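Reviewer 2 asked us to include a model.

Predict the structure of this chain.
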Amino acid sequence: MRKAWIAAGAGVGAALAFVMLLVVGVYVVAGNLVNSVTAGSRGLAKGAVPAAYKGLVQQWGNLCPALSPALLAAQLYQESGWNPTIVSPADARGIAQFIPSTWATHGIDGNGDGKRDIWDPNDAIPSAASYDCELAKYVKDVPGNVSDNMLAAYNAGAYRVIKAGGVPSISETQNYVQRIRSLEKSFAAPVRRIDPTRQAAGAIAFAQSKLGTPYLWGGNGTADQGGRFDCSGLTKAAYDKVGISLPRVANDQYNAGPHPSRDQLLPGDLVFFSDDLTDSRAIRHVGIYVGGGYMIDAPRSGAVIRFDPVDTPDYFGATRVTEDGAKALPTAV
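Predicted model (structure tokens):
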């Protein structure tokens, strides 16, 4: 849900007039940028890492060349969703999900207080980075990408990576490496323009077809709900329509791809809003950008799906949804 922002009637009319031109323009831009590739970065995307952990991730993510802040962030998000108190069914503990036996040999005193506390992110995050870099040393002479081999060793053990001569043919390990590398793009600060997606026009067309539909908290657009949506239900349904499955909650949808800056927004990008502009986990509203400073969104109870302006004080940022980015997201964080 989001506070109401009242758009001038003339502005909404203008948005209606040019939205289809903008939708078609997605394909033109896609053709113009087809050779553009998002480059990696040692920096972090705005707000992608909660403020309480950003300094730790930035510092320790640069511990060795095989690691980066974005890669470390992707691992922590995948493992725990930034929850420092979580315990897995396998008894993996804390924000970095260390098994106690692994912690006993690889946990470090990251904050120098004389204790190695598996539950303290100030110890656990440095320990995760240290363990990654230790694994990178073990597999440094293995053919292939050293970061991929490091991640494979984290999942399957360094011996299996060395024996296989690279990422072993274990589906769980291959999927783990692919997920983390895809998630990495969601946490990295882009250094070049980000390619548009061809699904964007279809997502906008779906959202546009729902204009005027009353809002429903928890709405997924089902028949028993009268075809009504809330904000993230609408964006999920729009991308479901074009074959991309997004999480149900807005703050998880934020990690479904890289993050264009405000001046690089394209139709189809998801745009997010929050009362805490330093933490993506605090996001509380999402819409679909259509161009000209407007989005289609399901704003709040008592309102209908409509055009609203993007440039408000609670604007958090945007995500260019990709198939790989959506597939990489954990099922529960």
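The radius of gyration is 21 Å. The first helix runs from residue 9 to 32. We have added this to the supplementary material.
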